[in-house]
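Quick log. Single chain, no ligands specified.
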Amino acid sequence: MAALLAAARAPFDRAEWWDGLARHCDITPRYALARHADGSAALFPLTCAGGVARPLANWYTFRWRPLVSPGADAPALLAALGADLARRCWRIELDHLPGEDGTAQSLAEALRASGWRVAMSQHDINHVLPVAGRSHAAYLAARPGPLRSTLKRKAGRVACAVLTRFCPEAWAAYEAIYAASWKGEEGSPAFLRAFAEAEGAAGRLRLGLGRIDGQPVAAQLWTVEGGTAFIHKLAYREEARAHSPGTALTAALMAHVIDTDRVDLVDFGTGDDPYKRDWMEQARPRYRISALRPADPRSWPHLARALASKARAALPPRPGTARGAPLLFDGQRPQ
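-> predicted structure:
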């Protein structure tokens, strides 16, 4: 299992992240592990309550996926985990599953192979920037005209700094800016600070601060790992909005991760916020899997509703009406 964890290339795949959720976010971990005779393994970091298994994650988590040893027989390992979970749970609800690496589809297939009734649907968007070897200047030249105009007109007023080690004074400024921003109260300040401290000690932290006349007005929390820059948090003081300090600080951090860290990808997390399209160039879907164990009576009402939806979908629509395709527990939507 140590080798499996050592291969992690994102915060959300590391034991430290899961431990932080347990310590600071009142989440109880449950780990499902399958091993093969050749030493390969697959791990589900989960939480479980009332017979329902969910990802070991919260609002800070960009995406969730099982960890599988490179070169392993992933379908067999995942199916073994699915079979074991069927003896312990009646329902599985997994979200923020990536599709670009095959995680969502392979999980759905493995759960079906182990007897679960599975429905999969898209539920979120992940905006990313493939750097493709460009310099920051080349990247910036390709940004939308209004963004470049804003930077030319206003960025000079904002003095930006990027810290790569944790600094208590800088973190206090971050917390003060966040509290004075449109975002209001932080969900779990203790979790976020512990994460920033650990990332700083490991050299992965990129904490940006923007100042006007020496006063901190914008702050952003990024980390760099495995060739990817992750944008975790960003905020600015409402009274400084007219100076676009957030835009100036994002540009400064982009310059750092592209020209200094030389990352391959910038990941702006989940959510289809319009401003993310100005900075990012691709949008990737994030999926949800709902799985039910047919033999458990607690599943029957859910399966009955899905069957009724399927029956209604097969009927011709009444004249003048329209409807969307219902979600079915066979992993497909009607064509």
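The chain has two domains: 2-124+285-314, 132-263.
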